[in-house]
Design a protein that fits this description.
The protein is α+β, with helices and mostly antiparallel strands. It is built from 13 helices and 10 strands. It has 2 domains: 35-134 and 169-382, Beta Barrel (Catalase HpII,  Chain A, domain 1), CATH 2.40.180; 426-481, no CATH class. Helices cover 28% and strands 15% of the residues. Strands 1, 2, 3, 4, 5, 6, 7, 8, 9 and 10 form a 10-stranded antiparallel beta sheet that branches. The radius of gyration is 23 Å and the shape is globular. It holds the Pfam family Catalase.
Length: 489
């Protein structure tokens, strides 16, 4: 009897259904999260024949992830199926806003992107060193990034653009508080945490869904640079973080992170939201540990440097669309946008067949009907059929056993105001209040320093947001700017 070959995505992830798109109800519309559909269409569009826009400056290393605790009650993903199981990984660190030649020590979030080369395809956790983000709707992302880049006339960084945008986007306050704290200038890449940031799904063997957040906890501890040291190193050694990571691994001082998860049963999302007033799928919010404590999963160790930077780091491509059976998506709007945008960026920047490059290629068998396109170098599947459905038994076929449980959706299709009913202040204020007095002093000094050249109308609008998070927060920044805090918004 002939063994059936499983149809997969180009990342080696099994395809449960190749005939029907994911839709909201039987009559549609089609959902953007149907990555298999998007991948097929995008690849087809590019079958006839640049520095990253964000995260351009980066460093990476290979390593191993080892399972230390049993979480099979939450997920059927095979990489977690038994304690002691190991999976090869690639972890790329980066700054976000700077160009490829910028300094590693600039105040900026840090990218923390992990590629797990699993037996069911590549799983990418394309996260940051912060658990939250500046915005919650993907339509705002290009505008936000423009404010972090260069002014269209002067070609200089513009504090006015940044604070103008943030002052009109109060949901950014939580991330601003993190960015301008001590953790905004980490001491290299080894001494910081990483986060998946978004809410994802776990799906277990009984087809039950759990909501999940991923945390990578540095086993080296947390170390940050002072403002003076960060500025000094930017001039003396702009590649400080890359040098530190490479040299540590060469010296066999292998950095490690403990992977932990927060898990929320699917049925609790609504009740938790009603209790707290927060949307569990909002990337500008965290789930408090007292509600959902960290559960240890395993240890990630980096133990091998790349041999060629361009081939293995510059061409490395990560996408949150790459999830394996047992891990899925959520209604998080920013996640839904990134599912499309990251893969599309790689198609443009690296090329139509970027997933075949050795650093991106799955380490398990993969079978697609994608053909041709520029720089095809894997044999192009020879004489095999390039269409499906077909009646040839030995060709890849969809695998219904990998189908996920339905993702519950409610409400009419519309453009909903993401600010309506939102509370952007409580969690930012809680973070401020968690800080010791000296940490609060450095935070408010950093913010005041960044706002000195900003027009007063923008300063006052932003100060009102700080004051709503905590009156002491706003007052301290106002005092350091030498201005009177105006009335509430």
């Amino acid at each position: 009897m002939t063994t059936r070959t499983t149809l997969t995505t180009a990342s080696g992830i099994p395809v449960p259904d190749n005939q029907n798109s994911v839709t909201a109800g039987p009559r549609g519309p089609v959902l953007l999260q149907d990555f298999h559909l998007i991948e097929k269409l995008q690849h087809f569009n590019r079958e006839r024949t640049p520095e990253r826009v964000v995260h351009a400056k980066g460093s990476a290393a290979y390593g191993t992830f080892t399972v230390t605790e049993d979480i099979t009650r939450y997920t059927r993903a095979k990489l977690f199926e038994q304690v002691g199981k190991q999976t090869s990984v690639l972890l790329r660190f980066s700054t976000v806003g700077g160009e490829k030649g910028s300094a590693d020590t600039e105040r900026d979030p840090r990218g923390f992107a992990v590629k797990f080369y699993t037996e069911e395809g590549n799983w990418d956790v394309a996260g940051n060193n912060t658990p939250v983000f500046f915005i919650k709707d993907p339509s705002k992302f290009p505008d936000f990034i423009h404010t972090q880049k260069r002014h269209p006339q002067t070609n200089l960084k513009s504090p006015t653009m940044m604070w103008d945008f943030w002052s009109l986007s109060p949901e950014a306050l939580h991330q601003i508080t993190t960015l301008f704290s001590d953790r905004g200038t980490p001491d290299g890449y080894r001494f910081m945490h990483g986060f998946g940031s978004h809410t994802f799904s776990f799906i277990n063997a009984d087809n039950e869904r759990f909501w999940v957040k991923f945390h990578f906890r540095s086993m080296q501890g947390i170390k940050n640079l002072s403002v003076a040291d960060a500025v000094r190193l930017a001039g003396e050694d702009p590649d400080y973080a890359q040098r530190d990571l490479f040299n540590a691994i060469e010296a066999q001082d292998f950095p490690k992170w403990r992977l932990c998860v927060q898990v929320m049963p699917e049925v609790e999302a609504e009740t938790w939201s009603r209790k707290t007033g927060w949307n569990p799928f909002d990337i500008t919010k965290v789930w408090p540990y007292k509600d959902y404590p960290l559960i240890e999963v395993g240890v990630l160790e980096l133990n091998r440097n790349p041999q060629n930077y361009f081939a293995e780091v510059e061409q490395a491509a990560f996408s949150p669309a790459n999830v394996v059976p047992g891990i899925g998506f959520s209604p998080d709007k920013m996640l839904q946008g990134r599912i499309f945008a990251y893969h599309d960026a790689h198609l443009y920047r690296v090329g139509t067949n970027y997933q075949q490059l050795p650093v991106n290629r799955p380490q398990c068998p993969y079978h697609t009907y994608q053909r041709d396109g520029s720089m095809r170098f894997d044999g192009n599947f020879g004489a095999a059929p390039n269409y499906e459905p077909n009646s040839i038994v030995s060709t890849p076929k969809q695998a219904p056993q990998y189908k996920e449980p339905p993702l519950k959706i409610s409400g009419d299709a519309d453009r909903y105001d993401h600010a309506e009913g939102d509370d952007p202040y409580t969690q930012a204020g809680n973070l401020f209040r968690l800080m010791k007095a000296d940490e609060q002093d450095r935070l408010t000094s950093n913010i005041a320093g960044a706002m000195r050249s900003v027009p007063m109308s923008i300063v006052q609008r932003q100060l009102a947001h700080f004051a709503k998070a905590d009156p002491r927060y706003g007052a301290a920044i106002a005092a350091k700017l030498g201005v009177q805090l105006a009335g509430a918004l």
